[in-house]
Design goal:
Radius of gyration: 17 Å
Largest sheet: 2 strands, antiparallel
Order of helices and strands: HHEEH
Strand content: 5-15%
Distance between the termini: 25 Å
Helix content: 25-40%
Oligomer: single chain
Shape: globular
Mean pLDDT: 80
Length: 103
């Protein structure tokens, strides 16, 4: 992404895909992370690729109905959500992190 695209990529209805894009994908991600008080970091180099890191804080108060972990301080297994429309990217991620990819 160039700098202008990087600055605007989270805006609703902003798209670089012309007629086939709705501009709602990253705006939806942004709305979700806002509701969960997450932070986003966007690194991009035109012609090389873009990495978006979303950081979610671990809640200090358990959610209503949540089951407490077996030992204090123990974290449950982590899940990583990767969204991409390129099967090669998804396969590469699955191989790199040795995880199952659900399409």
């Amino acid at each position: 992404m160039d700098e202008d695209t990087r600055r605007r990529c989270l805006e609703p209805f902003f798209t670089t895909k012309g007629e086939r894009g709705t501009g709602l994908g990253l705006a939806t991600v942004y709305g979700t992370m806002e509701r969960h008080s997450a932070d986003i970091e966007i690194e991009s180099a035109a012609g090389i690729g873009t990495t978006m890191r979303l950081s979610f804080a671990i809640p200090t108060v358990p959610a209503v109905g949540a089951v407490a972990p077996a030992s204090a301080g123990a974290l449950p297994p982590q899940r990583i959500l990767i969204v991409d429309d390129d099967p090669l990217v998804l396969n590469r991620c699955a191989t790199r992190w040795r995880r199952t990819v659900i399409v």
